[in-house]
Amino acid sequence: MNLVFHGKRIEGLLAVLPANERLFVDEMDQFDFPRARSLKLKEVMGYDRHRIVDGPVCVSDLAVHGLEHLFAQGLLGRDDFDALILVTQSPDYFMPATSSVIQGRLGLKHDMFCMDINQGCAGFLIGLYQAFMLLEQPAIRRVVLVNADVMSRKVSVRDRNSYPLIGDAASITVIGRCDDDAPIHANLKMDGSRRDALMIPAGGMREPSSAETRELHADAEGNLRARDDLVMDGSAVFNFVQTEVPPMIEALLAAAQTEAAAVDTYLFHQPNRFMLQKLADKLQVPYAKMPSNVVEHFGNSSGVTIPLALALNLREQVLDKTLTAVLGGFGVGLTWSSMLLPLGPLAFCDIIDYPRVH
Amino acid sequence: MEEFLKEMADILDEETVKEDDRLDGFESWDSLAVLSVVAMADSRYRATFAAREIRGATTVGDLYRLLSAGARAG
């Protein structure tokens, strides 16, 4: 479906990364694969290092750390927003919502619309849509969107299919109203019939966690994982992305009556460099316009990768001027979505560390 | 076919590969190699293959015929 929004803008964003950094070459021996093949995987996919929590760090820990930083630096007033949206797949608890946990830990005012959304790699876009819709309410002046996941805690360290690329992170995006009434165009599709491509089979009500679901089993390739762990069908995800994303971007630009040449940057979700370069080839977008370096620096942190791609590659530009940006998210659900919007000048666009636990 | 054999040699980390080579005879015939073939099918043949279809091929030549047929169908 096509979506249109008016008079909304991103005011600033902050990303929070665990200080703990692990190198792929130091982790190769935990996989049951020949080293030469793991090195080939590193080269093809663009793996190098990733940031993962080094203890029982939760989503609310990363979010509270980031928001306290913004309050302390005077970049956001604690009473200057009226809604707190958290997009995560790794909440602190089944209940209550982790957005309520964050509100409570920070002692935020009671006039606050808290909500959790279960979304992954398209989660930055889904969160923005929800923020834009909440801003239709006069009582909501500003929305804080938190994207956060600690998926490393739900991926087997013996699973070469997923562990090398996973990253933990949070981002805090402040969204408000503006006078510019030029439409923001977006589109969104979902296909729950392909939900098996990315999932954590056990641990919910369908298959509660038990001693059995915690047992490691080898798959046909030799990856060891439990049913409590994330499992990804890499080839199915690859085909999904290469099939669905290019026509989605073409449809977005057509609906917005915008030429591809007018787009300054394509900020896509960052599954790995390999998949992004194949996408760029298909869309005939120069690699310089489509960052693909988030996984090699930080790992793939689901909904946080688009803010990270911006802060890592375009910080100075987006603080200084307005970029015409196409955002693209695709993944679990399956969900795929894109948005064309003017981005910047932002009040802040930073990356900070969450201190080590050990 | 020449081009295809060259790409397969690169994917399998071999100097050369032949049409009647068995895929499971290569230590490098793993999930990365299968994904690389899925990607080649997409970019070179504009065809979409599931990993299990690629794994269904016995020899390098079988794979060539599978991808070529997919290109016609697609």
What's this entry about, in short?
Chain A has helices spanning about 25, 35-45, 60-70, 100-105, 125-135, 235-255, 275-285, 295-300, 305-315, 315-320, and strands at about 1-5, 10-20, 20-25, 50, 85, 115, 140-150, 170-175, 185-190, 200, 215-220, 225, 230, 265-270, 325-330, 335-345, 350-355. With about 350 residues, chain A is α/β, with parallel strands linked by helices. The longest helix of chain A has 22 residues, at about 235-255.
Question: Could you explain the architecture of this structure?
Answer:
Chain B: InterPro entries: ACP-like_sf (IPR036736). Chain B: This is Acyl carrier protein. Chain B: It comes from Rhodanobacter hydrolyticus. The complex is a heterodimer of chains A (358) and B (74). Chain A has one domain (1-358): Peroxisomal Thiolase, Chain A, domain 1, CATH 3.40.47.10. Chain A is 29% helix and 25% strand. The model of chain A has no long low-confidence stretch (mean pLDDT 96). Chain A has 10 helices and 17 strands. In chain A, the strands form 5 sheets. In chain A, strands 6-5-7-8-2-17 form a 6-stranded mixed β-sheet, sandwiched between helices. Chain A has a 5-stranded mixed β-sheet with strand order 1-9-16-15-14, sandwiched between helices. In chain A, strands 3-4 form a two-stranded antiparallel ribbon. By secondary structure, chain A is an alpha/beta fold. In chain A, α3 packs parallel to α4 (98-106) and α6 (234-255) packs parallel to α7 (273-283). Chain B is mainly α and 74 residues long. Chain B has one domain (2-73): ACP-like (Non-ribosomal Peptide Synthetase Peptidyl Carrier Protein, Chain A), CATH 1.10.1200. The longest helix of chain B is centred in the middle third of the chain and has 15 residues, at 31-45. The two termini of chain B are 19 Å apart. Chain A binds chain B through residues 33-34, 36-37, 40-41, 44, 161, 221, 233-236, 238-239, 242-243, 274, 278, 281-282, and chain B through 13, 27-28, 30-32, 34-36, 38-39, 42-43, 48-51, 54.
